[in-house]
Amino acid sequence: xxxxxxxxxxxxxxxxxxxxxxxxxxxxxxxxxxxxxxxxxxxxxxxxxxxxxxxxxxxxxxxxxxxxxxxxxxxxxxxxxxxxxxxxxxxxxxxxxxxxxxxxxxxxxxxxxxxxxxxxxxxxxxxxxxxxxxxxxxxxxxxxxxxxxxxxxxxxxxxxxxxxxxxxxxxxxxxxxxxxxxxxxxxxxxxxxxxxxxxxxxxxxxxxxxxxxxxxxxxxxxxxxxxxxxxxxxxxxxxxx
Length: 241
Fold this sequence. Notes:
Blueprint: H1 19-28, H2 35-49, E1 51-52, H3 62-68, E2 70-71, H4 73-86, E3 91-99, E4 118-128, E5 131-134, H5 142-151, E6 159-161, E7 164-166, E8 188-195, H6 198-205, H7 211-233, H8 235-238
Helix pairs in contact: 2-4, 3-4, 5-7
């Protein structure tokens, strides 16, 4: 089955014609790889070279996420989609919500009760041999996960919190091997369906926060959350000193 043009199109958010994105792709030589290797190389770049962290908003263009150098589920999804489409990998946007308990341990305790019960969540799906593969595992980098395991005393089994929602925190399905990847799926509460691009979804559904809550998040709360993430990420280094 040939992919529809919409699954390869650039948009305002999937701005893969931006110079910074074009230059990155040229430097990495991703277009010279076979399709499966292209997916793996782009996926690993976004997962491990774009740190997990909280941007100013969900609906940022891919070039802005790249410039930030960090992202969360929604913003990493935008960057991943843009890079995949730029190297001619058809992909789509899948929207959902997650339980706010997934963010416990990162959201400051004084504002946690004010967080919405459900938080907008998204992942990218790639089309391979007429089937779709979920790339939800792109969100958390290895260094953060290693630090979190050290912080929590090397846990095993289920974990819902610290931006993780998995049945196997010791060995989550986060590495690309041709099948689904995931790291927050056990926290998903509602499936909001697939969309050709994030622009259409955010235009219709909006983003997670508005008004005074958005202002406080952008100016204060996300910075506290990012300091917590940095502290967790450094925990693995602390154990080696």
